[in-house]
Design a protein that fits this description.
8-stranded parallel sheet; 8 strands; Arginase, Chain A; about 300 residues
């Protein structure tokens, strides 16, 4: 199936203190993401980068609150508009960008009368609220925000909260105490690396994809670099050992493509300052291509570095 894919740069770097993710969108362009998608027969339109709304909110505890709120509003509008034109891929940028992108795609799904589902490929649950985060880093809050948890009064209102049971987090291996308690009391589907080791990604992911299909849902996939083991993908400021292998990650993306369910996607937390000759950016491009139809037999042999 030929898709109209919209590439949208989201150079968000306000969700945490360590800088560098604002260079992510250009790293994906340099790694030839548009060309990889066109090689698969899709159309790929690069819409450039979103710019944040002006917002001068400050908070002694929360890092760059105003800028993150500004990004949330701008990216929500961009996401909602893009959903009417095709399949948007948001090139980030730290995971705070998902405060806006998921907010926007969920609003579109609600207008279509369809449920929104989210597959969160991440070492972290990102289920903090502004009141529970100890670090003050807002890239750890998107799933709490889009499910309508309290504490986000300064952010755009969540008029279309995503039901907790419509979320699936895969690859967990670093969860704070406050998040753990909230997750255990929630209906969020969550699988840590032990579950992947014991059962494999197919057994864990297939039931979730089946639920999306049976509900005629729209599926947003948010792929964090730290879903992967840092030995394969070093260009992230939140490395946690023991992540998904390259093959496991490709299998996840191939299953997503086989399902035909994905309607939007984030590529997040790529910090080119921490990369090794662009290999993390290239791996993320390859995974994105697997999610949109590249098969094992037509995967190009990497050029020597």
């Amino acid at each position: 199936m030929t898709l109209d894919i919209l590439l949208i740069g989201a150079p968000v770097d306000s969700g945490k203190t360590r800088k560098g993710c604002l260079m992510g969108p250009d790293a994906y362009r340099i790694a030839r993401l548009p060309e990889a998608l066109r090689d698969l027969g899709h159309t790929a339109h690069d819409l450039g980068n979103v710019t944040p709304d002006a917002c001068d909110l400050t908070d002694d505890h929360l890092h760059e609150l105003g800028l993150t709120v500004g990004w949330t509003g701008a990216l929500s509008r961009a996401a909602e508009a893009a959903m009417t034109r095709g399949l948007p891929i948001f090139m980030g940028g730290d995971h705070a960008l998902s405060l806006g992108t998921v907010h926007g795609v969920a609003a579109h799904a609600a207008r279509q009368g369809r449920p929104q589902f989210v597959l969160w490929l991440d070492a972290h649950s990102d289920f903090h609220t502004p009141k529970t985060t100890e670090s003050g880093n807002l890239h750890g809050t998107p799933l709490a925000y889009v499910t309508g948890r309290a504490g986000f009064d300064q952010f755009p209102p969540v008029n279309d909260p995503i039901p907790e049971e419509n979320l699936c987090i895969l690859g967990l291996r670093s969860v704070d105490g406050a998040e753990r308690g909230a997750l255990e009391a929630s209906k969020v589907h969550r699988f840590d690396m032990r579950a992947i080791d014991e059962f494999g990604v197919t057994a864990l992911l297939k039931p979730f994809l089946k639920r999306v299909e049976e509900a005629n849902g729209m599926l947003h996939v948010s792929l964090d670099v730290d879903f992967l083991d840092p030995a394969a993908a070093p260009a992230v400021g939140t490395t946690v050992p023991g992540g998904a292998t390259v093959r496991e990650a490709h299998l996840v993306m191939e299953m997503i493509h086989d399902s035909g369910l994905m309607t939007s996607m984030d590529l997040v937390e790529l910090n080119p300052m921490l990369d090794e000759r662009g290999r993390t950016a290239q791996l993320m491009v390859d995974l994105c291509a697997s999610g949109l139809g590249r098969k094992v037999f037509d995967r190009p042999t990497p050029r020597s570095l």
